[in-house]
Structure formats: structure tokens, C-alpha cells
Amino acid sequence: MSLQISFAQVLEDADQLSLDEQESLLAILQRRLTESRREQLAKDIRQARLEFEQGLCQPTTPEDLIRRALL
Q: Is the model's pLDDT at 37 over the cut of 80?
């Protein structure tokens, strides 16, 4: 069963916490965001490696990338 809570409600509820609790909440959210970003980066790397192994992309130099971007 999924509970739907609006962003505004989350902010209101967070305002009801003590300063220590708000700091703890912030630290927990920052750790979770860091972990989520790490997981997404690992997923992107796995996908890029798979595409490279399948011949769907070719290695290139930074100079080639800049040259193509300017065209």
C-alpha cells in the first residue's frame, strides 16, 4: 500500500521537527541522494560499456568531441 504525501506536506511536517531532528533528516537525505547518484552513475557506466562492447559507439578524443560540437 503506497502512501501519497505532497512535497508541501513534507516541508510542513519537517518544520514541526526539532532542530536536531531536522539536521538528522537532512543528513539522512544527503546520504540517500549520494547513494542514489552513485547507483545511477554505476548503471550509466554499465550501459555505456555494453554499448561499446556491442559496437554501438567508438572511442574518441576530447578534440574530436569539441570539433563535432562546434559543427
A: yes
